[in-house]
Amino acid sequence: MSELLDIEISKRSLGEMAPRFKLLSTLMPGYVAELESWQGKAREFADRVIRPKALEIDARCHDDPTYFDWDLVKASTPYGFLSMMVPKPLGGGGQLATATGIVLEEMCAACAGIANIFGANGLGVSGVLLGFDLYHYERTLTDLVRGDRNGEPVIFAAAVTEPLAGSDVEDREYMEKAKLVMEARPVPGGYLLNGRKVFISNGSVARWNTVMAPLDRKKPVETLCGFMVRQGTPGFSIGRVEKKMGQKACPAAELVFEDCFVPKRNLVGHEGEGMRFTELVLGASRGPVGAIATGIARGAFERIFDYARRKKVGGRRLIDRQWVQIRLADMARRIHLARQSYLDATMAFDFTGMPKLMKTLPARFALELLPSFVRGSELYHRLMGSKMGHQLVQGMFDRNLEESDLRHIQQYSSMAKVTGSDIAVEVAYEALQIAGLESSLARLELEKLYRDAKLTQIYEGTNQLNRHNIFTNAFPNEYADGCR
Ligand SMILES: Cc1cc2nc3c(=O)[nH]c(=O)nc-3n(C[C@H](O)[C@H](O)[C@H](O)COP(=O)(O)OP(=O)(O)OC[C@H]3O[C@@H](n4cnc5c(N)ncnc54)[C@H](O)[C@@H]3O)c2cc1C
């Protein structure tokens, strides 16, 4: 496979792929050098580990959706992809949305199913990071760092979707009418979780699931909470693992909660902060979903470019025909658009979102100066869980995350998700069309890329709902909701 893809385009530098990095490298050389380094690591991992196994794992997971290739994930540990978002003072890579996007694009050009193991892990990690609960940084995120260091990977997942509520639970407006089945009932010392989550990527293999559940299903917006649920907790089990059309290497599982007791310390942040986390997480993660889609489109482009160089029709190579050149040029143009769109979204997040909070004095003090045993102690948890702790964190959010910044982040992240995923489907479709009969052959990987591409239009809110999200954030409070 690597021989098939021995083309110059898959080796372009960051500056060649997106000219903004040439300018940025003069203004912020350290920032760009770090991104380049992550791109190099992802490229090496994709060539060395992902490409040789992609087709085999896809076929295996088709026969048995519960199959999970732990060896492959173990091979990722020296690179630190699973812990790349964990803050540096905790031993992680300290990266945010842009580096995550760049890594995912590289991996997805090789295989989006395998890449999504890392993408879904990032989604779970974001739930903790954006909860800004340093007790959980210490207690759960450091598991990822140890896992990468010891070669015994630890995986996270985010459980938001419910059997009767997918898009609804991702949007404050729709949430009010969502048909939820999950509920967290306060009991002495903690909460009892009951209900089900569905289609949770990595859910069946994750050590930690970030689970969203309301205290009162009739008031979901006001009472939604995020809970860390560890694999093996009594009352928590894995239901069906879905047989899905694409991205098969990453299992999508049903999570079942039956009187599952979680102690109070497993609550992320405070009661009722869940909707804000969900919105922040989606603002952070839809940009990287655009990157996943860009990678799939690039994968299809690289394969069809290579095919067109090799395939002769009527004595001439396909690539020497003008109609093919025009189609390839148009694919390259669209991939460029998708990439710009996700970079705008991820940079909007990295420069105006959560990182602003991380740079505040109290956050730097807690992250950089407090010893880890203090951050991870019950006393610290109780202090931060108190009214005063709540006011401190709430005040930091209010002072540093302006409404207009949040709207920008939401708008650009939905734009990146819609633009990228639509382009991924179009480019994969074009590639299939150019290859004609041979496009259906599994070994060309084009049919797999098309299957993988389609899912990006659905997850993290359907593209329809994301379009509406663009509208409401770009033109707040001006128009009635014509969606319902
Ligand atoms: C491969 C894969 C992996 C996934 N991984 C995860 C994961 O890790 N964690 C997780 O929590 N979830 C995950 N999901 C779930 C995913 O986020 C949801 O599928 C997605 O949000 C869409 O929800 P839904 O499928 O329930 O569609 P629905 O919300 O039921 O939508 C169905 C249709 O109705 C439309 N619609 C919905 N609401 C409205 C409205 N108010 N007005 C007008 N039209 C509307 C939609 O646009 C769509 O056309 C995954 C899904 C897939 C396919």
Which structural traits does this protein have?
484 residues; alpha+beta; Butyryl-CoA Dehydrogenase, subunit A, domain 3; Butyryl-CoA Dehydrogenase, subunit A, domain 2; 2 domains; four-stranded mixed sheet; four-stranded antiparallel sheet; 19 helices; binds flavin-adenine dinucleotide
Description:
It is a single chain. This protein is of the alpha+beta class. It folds into 2 domains: 8-155 and 276-474, Butyryl-CoA Dehydrogenase, subunit A, domain 3 (Up-down Bundle); 156-272, Butyryl-CoA Dehydrogenase, subunit A, domain 2, CATH 2.40.110.10. The chain has 19 helices and 10 strands. It has helices at 14-17, 20-27, 29-63, 70-76, 97-110, 112-129, 134-150, 172-175, 220-223, 274-310, 322-352, 354-358, 361-369, 372-375, 378-385, 387-400, 403-435, 446-456, 463-474, and strands spanning 156-159, 183-187, 190-201, 208-214, 224-230, 236-241, 252-263, 267-268, 312-313, 316-317. A hairpin with a 2-residue loop joins β9 and β10. α11 (322-352) runs antiparallel to α17. The termini are far apart. Flavin-adenine dinucleotide binds next to α6, β1, β3 and α19.
